[in-house]
Amino acid sequence: MTDSIAATINTRANVYFDGKCVSHGITLADGTKKSVGVILPATLTFNTGAPEVMETVAGSCSIKLAGSDSWQSYGPGERFDVPGQSSFEIKVEGEPYHYICHFG
Q1: pLDDT tens digits along 10-31
Q2: What's the maximum distance between 2 C-alpha atoms anywhere in the chain?
Q3: Are 66 and 88 a contacting pair, CB within 8 Å?
Q4: Does 1 reside within a domain?
Q5: Would you name any one GO CC term?
Q6: What CATH number is associated with residue 42?
Q7: Which of 40, 99, 101, 104 is the most exposed place for a label (fewest CB within 10 A)?
């Protein structure tokens, strides 16, 4: 899938968790910030500053929000919300998980 948009792309990758998560930051013409990335099979914990919406592009994952005891699963075309100043665990098994993260 490809989209044509007016944006500035940070061509230097953000590499986290010894390369298990790699993303690129994008700033749209209106100042909106996003990142596009991939998470390889692993269970990782992310902290958030601003609220985030994680949009699944390919692959699947299970997530557990801070304060929750239950895991929720998401696949292509599905999204989940993460509150700001919080955290979430994400579990990827099998195929890599491709995502778009919408900030704010």
Answers
A1: 999 999 999 999 999 999 999 9
A2: 40
A3: yes
A4: no
A5: cytosol
A6: 2.60.120.10
A7: 104
Is 16 within the bounds of a domain? Answer: yes
- pTM comes to 0.92
Task: Give residue 71's identity as a one-letter amino acid code.
Answer: W
Q: How many separate domains does the chain show?
A: 1
Residue 1 has pLDDT above 70, yes or no: no
CB atoms within 10 A of CB 101: 19
Contact 97, 54 (CB under 8 A): no
- The residue segments making up the domain with residue 81 are 7-103
Q: Let me know if residue 28 belongs to a domain.
A: yes
User: Does any domain span residue 97?
Assistant: yes
Q: Which residue has the tokens 């557990």?
A: 64
Q: Are 88 and 63 in contact (CB under 8 A)?
A: yes
